[in-house]
Amino acid sequence: MDGVILDSEKLYVRFWCEAGRFYGFPMEEKHALSIRSMARPLASAKLKGIFGNGFDYEAVRSKRVELMDNYVEKNGIEVKSGAKELLSFLKENGYKVALATATPPQRAERYLKAHDLYKYFDVTVSASMVSVGKPAPDIYLKAAEMLGLSPQNCVALEDSPNGIKSASSAGCVTVMVPDLDKPSNDIIPLLHGVADGLSDVKRILRELEDCNIQ
């Protein structure tokens, strides 16, 4: 959802940095980017590895949530260009559609309903519903199971390295839709392709038709 459907990753980065600095940690954009889509225990360990064991992940995260909620309440979250058109295309053409997100389910539902997008998803899977979040494969395995499909017959759209690792290790046909960064050298081998925005995803789907990807 974040960074693919909603233009929210820039907000997470901004408010992670502000929350970290609020508690005296010199958090920068690169630190916030490194934990995008990452499961909370792994994100906590990563940030403690950067800032030391004194880094209170839960306190900083709570402050980030507070700051971002206040911003979203006043300003909302923008939808990524082409999101509604792609979701409508998928439903009209018989694709099953799952949301696999690190965002808590109630929050994801609220954000998507605000833009009338929630109705396009057959199932939603949040990190709270699996044992281990991204970059582990669990969330994509669960999404495929709930759709009644094998992961190999699922196309995963991702923008973050942790999400790409999760989808690829689950066996999905993984496509990057770049948001805040481009595919790095270690990510490129995990990708079936890179879409030039959501409007370009239809091209990739057409190319996959002969492979019976539904």
Automatic annotation (TrEMBL):
SUPFAM superfamilies noted in UniProt: HAD-like
Lineage top rank: taxon: Bacteria
Pfam families: Hydrolase
Coiled coil: none
Alphabetized PANTHER family for the sequence: FRUCTOSE-1-PHOSPHATE PHOSPHATASE, GLYCEROL-1-PHOSPHATE PHOSPHOHYDROLASE 1-RELATED
Descriptive protein name: HAD family phosphatase
